[in-house]
C-alpha cells in the first residue's frame, strides 16, 4: 500500500505564486520518478514536471515559471509555481513510479485556480 497526498492548491490572481507539496508513504530512494500532472476542465491530463535520476523535465508551457524539487528526508516533492496564468487553472496530481516495477500511484489532486 502506497499513499500519495497533494496539498497547497488554492486561488491566486494572475502573476501570483503557489507552492504545491506531495507527500508519499514510501522512500524516495525506491522511486523511479516522481512528478506533477494537471487536468483542466474538458481537457486531457498532461505532464507538468517530473523528477528523474538524470534531472528535471518541464512542459514547454511552464518552463522558466515552475520549479520541481524534492526533500529526500521527508519523502516529499514540491512544485513552486510563479507568474501564474489563468491557463494554469487545473487540478494538479502527484504521480509516483516505483523503481524496478510497472507500478505507479496517484494522489487525489489539489485544485489550482488562477483568476484574471
Textual characterization of the structure:
Helix content is 0%, strand content 56%. It is built from no helices and 11 strands. It has strands at 4-7, 10-13, 18-24, 31-39, 46-52, 55-58, 66-71, 76-81, 90-98, 104-106, 110-115. The radius of gyration is 14 Å and the shape is globular.
The total of beta strands comes to 11
Q: Point out poorly predicted stretches.
A: none
| Overall pLDDT score | 94
Oligomer: single chain
Q: H/E series, N to C?
A: EEEEEEEEEEE
**Biggest sheet overview:** 7 strands, mixed
Query: How many DSSP H or I helices?
Result: 0
Gap between N and C termini: 41 Å
Q: Choose one word for the global shape.
A: globular
Strand content: over 45%
Structural category is mainly beta
The helix content, as a percent range, equals under 10%
Computed CA radius of gyration, to the nearest angstrom: 14 Å
Amino acid at each position: 500500500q502506497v499513499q500519495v497526498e497533494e496539498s497547497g492548491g488554492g486561488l491566486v490572481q494572475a502573476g501570483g505564486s503557489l507552492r504545491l507539496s506531495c507527500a508519499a508513504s514510501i522512500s524516495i530512494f525506491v522511486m523511479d520518478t516522481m512528478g506533477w500532472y494537471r487536468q483542466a476542465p474538458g481537457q486531457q491530463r498532461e505532464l507538468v514536471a517530473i523528477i528523474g535520476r538524470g534531472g528535471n523535465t518541464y512542459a514547454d508551457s511552464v518552463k522558466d515559471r515552475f520549479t520541481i524539487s524534492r526533500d529526500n528526508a521527508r519523502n516529499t516533492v514540491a512544485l513552486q509555481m510563479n507568474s501564474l496564468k489563468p491557463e494554469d487553472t487545473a487540478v494538479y496530481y502527484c504521480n509516483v513510479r516505483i523503481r524496478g516495477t510497472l507500478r505507479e500511484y496517484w494522489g487525489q489532486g489539489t485544485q489550482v485556480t488562477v483568476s484574471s
